[in-house]
Amino acid sequence: MKKPLLLGTSALLLAGSSALAQQDVTIRWMAGNTAIAMETTQAMAQMYMDANPHTIGGEEYNVTVEVIQGPESASDRYALYLQFFQAQSAEADILEIDVIWPGDLAEHLVDLYEYEGVAEDVQAHFPAIVENNTVDGRLVGIPAFTDAGLLYYRSDLLEEYGFDGPPETWAELEEMARTIVEGESADNPDFTGFVWQGQAYEGLTCNALEWIASFGGGTIVSQEGQIEVFNDQAIAALETAAGWVGTISPQAVTGFQEEDARRIFTAGNAVFMRNWPYAYALLVDAEGDVTTENVGITTLPAGEEGGTPAATLGGWQYGVNRYSNNPEVAVDVARFMASREGQLYRALNEGLLPTIEALYEDEELLGSPYAWFADLLPVFQSAVARPSTPTAPRYNEVSRAFFTAVHGVLMGTTDAETALGELEFTLEELTGLPVAGGAQEVASR
Predict the structure, then answer these.
(1) 21, 40, 97, 406: which could join 350 in a potential S-S bond, CB 3.0 to 4.6 Å?
(2) Where is the signal peptide (predicted)?
(3) Which among 132, 148, 197, 205 has a CA at the least distance from the CA of 405?
């Protein structure tokens, strides 16, 4: 891969040239809110500035990168971006974009493919993320760091009860959970089999998308823009999940978010948990009965033997404001932040998962406290994106309709076939998109 110009290579080649008049430019980068995020981004900004001057598009620049602290809430940050765009403001040149925002914000972000080197850069990133960030052929975000759903399991309990390893299918998970709960509940009546995020919110969209995709039932709306939610596989997936409630999962799971599930699992009261990678990072230095010594992480199960595991993508991207006064320089800065050097720095100093596949075999990363990242590579290779791009700008409404329908099935207020049939009609009304036909149609339709 051609190294980004921002690393100083071109500046060295042109050192001593008096033909280029150096220009002073300030690029403002709106980053995260936490103390560690600010510390890391400011250090990365300094790394870029230390390589000054930069030659970009035949011009020489002395670049100052100013880091702006964004709002704590992702919703508040999204609202702030909309204010910038409505005013066509250049208040921030580089914006960190949630994985579900590219479709909604695309018209206000530059097409990164128009800038030299970007198309080559993104070939190193996970394809599913690049596809998610591409709207009508325009790349509106360079992947910054990623996230995906994982299956956590108590390796000590699986061994104690004679299981060779984690489950590969949901049916195997049910069998293991029932066996272990039966054995453990005599001494611990609070013990349960499997905890996950079942409340009616975005987290349930992520969980249910994983179930349906792992059964071969599609991704709600395909990246090609076809509604594919009402089919036999999707119905079977929701019927399976509804059967967990009150059996291998507590009845209260229909009100759980991420931290509800994590607290139960880390307290030693569950054998399996679906959660994001952050939960494992919290176990690294944990004290107590549940630590990284007896917890394993793996891909979520497939719907059936020979099926395909699926993990919903999370994470953030770097977008460049269309109204920036210096978009070419801003793209150059973003390329550095998303480069191998930039992503490795964020991984080692902030614990954020890279989107560059080769970094999962990097010797420096493997020799660090984050060596466990390497175990997650198969997860990202099988990750699926939420349909935020093909349903833009109505993804939030689509997601709400989806998780509301799924929650009704989990609560037992409706059956899966009825819920998904009604959902298909709702999505047609919301999006105007066509319904996928053919082999996935429900047999009884």
Answers:
(1) 40
(2) 1-21
(3) 205
